[in-house]
Design brief:
By secondary structure, this protein is an alpha/beta fold. The protein contains ten helices and eight strands. It has a single domain (about 10-235), classed as Aldolase class I (TIM Barrel). Bound molecules: the ligand O=c1ccn([C@@H]2O[C@H](COP(=O)(O)O)[C@@H](O)[C@H]2O)c(=O)[nH]1. It comes from Iodidimonas gelatinilytica.
């Protein structure tokens, strides 16, 4: 049995709690879950997350932890109190940091008696392209870098990675079949890419093998968020 009713997670990138809760109430029967990120968490913290969690929806808390192993292990103990379904760290924090995160999450889940969330590592942000990697002094294509970081995340015991749709096939070829591929950078045809540089349509991403697709602005900034979400679900013809 799959963990979520469908692969679509809606990113609630807002500091407005009323707007976020209204979107959850409107969309909860349509989408598979909701992603709360830095903007929401910096504005409302754990209490804001609890207000959303009360709606009994799967929550992806996307804080992309990136620090020394001891600090990330502590952050993981704290965030696990909110019973998330998915959590993120940055793969660039390295093997020891990712191992510390995985160990801390597993230990805390067992102490709290809650289900272990999927712990996934951000590889190369979807807002970056080959030119940006070059400027950062990172050698190799986005495919090579994502594959390298995915192998490292798997070795650290993580459940999967966050990658752009373009790297789904490469990542699948270097990691196990159960490895989760959480994929932002999703744009229904005709919608604005904004700051995203590596984008694909929902249908292409799911057909290529995304486990979860993350869509924010094309839904939340639409005049009809429920209609926008439903048309994404309709476009993903394969059963999840
Ligand atoms: O590489 C990454 C990692 C995370 N994200 C997050 O996904 C959503 C995408 O929102 P859109 O409005 O659909 O662009 C957003 O919350 C990001 O923080 C990402 O885009 N890329």
């Amino acid at each position: 049995m799959q963990r979520f009713k469908n692969p679509l997670f809606c990113a609630l990138d807002t500091g407005d709690l009323e707007k976020a809760t209204a979107l959850v109430d409107a969309l909860k029967d349509t989408v598979g879950g909701f992603k709360l990120g830095l903007e929401f968490f910096c504005a409302h913290g754990p209490k804001g997350v609890e207000a959303i969690a009360k709606r009994d929806v799967p929550l992806f808390i996307d804080l992309k932890f990136h620090d020394i192993p001891n600090t990330v292990a502590g952050a993981m103990r704290s965030i696990m109190q909110l019973n998330p379904a998915i959590l993120t760290v940055h793969a660039g924090g390295g093997l020891a940091m990712m191992r510390a995160a995985a160990d801390s999450a597993a230990d805390t889940a067992s102490k709290l008696g809650v289900k272990m969330p999927w712990l996934v590592a951000v590889t190369v942000l979807t807002s970056l392209d080959a030119g940006d990697l070059d400027v950062l002094g990172i050698e190799g294509s986005t495919h090579k870098v994502v594959a390298r970081l995915a192998r490292l995340a798997e070795k650290a015991g993580l459940d999967g990675v966050v990658c752009a749709p373009h790297e789904i096939s490469t990542t699948r070829s270097v990691a196990g079949q159960d490895f989760k591929l959480v994929v932002p950078g999703i744009r229904p045809r005709g919608t604005d890419a904004g700051d995203q540089k590596r984008v694909m349509t929902p249908k292409e991403a799911v057909e290529t093998g995304a486990t979860v697709i993350v869509v924010g602005r094309p839904i939340t900034q639409s005049d009809d968020p429920v209609g926008a979400a439903q048309s994404i679900i309709d476009a993903i013809s394969e059963p999840f």
